[in-house]
């Protein structure tokens, strides 16, 4: 009986890690896809002579590429070095910052450093928003549980 409980306790972090990865990978893929899309749109706008629009799209490309990169690298470190807490905190803080930026851009608008004093007010919602926001809200749960498991074992 005691062995069963011990075995279950050892399986829990593995289950949480798999759940975290299953929820994080679509998030990274969508942010990377979004970055590539914004880059292509930026190049297209530049060829059409829409320099200001191109700069705005380039700023969004940098944002989405940065998010995808931070998530990918931090996820690698969570998987590879499970007992180090820094990547957990990086993902959690990044997620909060993304949520704040997202909701500010949807309500009042947010200034982007593109050289033109542009403010982004984005009132569109598409499948990319849905995937990223749902998976972000979902992966925070197993990630937080893994972090608490690591903290309790130290």
Task: Characterise this structure.
- The chain has 154 residues and is an all-alpha fold.
- It has one domain (2-153).
- The protein has four helices and two strands.
- It has a two-stranded antiparallel ribbon.
- A hairpin with a 7-residue loop joins strand 1 (110-111) and strand 2 (119-120).
- The protein is elongated and about 65 Å long.
- The two termini are 26 Å apart.
- The relative contact order is 0.15.
- The mean pLDDT is 78.
How do you describe this structure in short?
The chain is mainly alpha-helical. The protein contains 4 helices and 2 strands.
Oligomeric state of shown chains:
single chain
Characterize the biggest β-sheet: 2 strands, antiparallel
**How far apart are the termini?**
26 Å
Outline, from the CA principal axes?
Answer: elongated
Strand order of the largest sheet: 1-2
Q: Summarize the amount of helix as a percent range.
A: over 70%
Low-pLDDT regions: none
Strand content is under 5%
**Count of distinct structural domains:** 1
Order of helices and strands: HHHEEH
Radius of gyration from the CA trace? Answer: 19 Å
Give the overall average pLDDT. 78
Total helix count? 4
Helix vs. strand class: mainly alpha
Q: How many β strands by DSSP?
A: 2
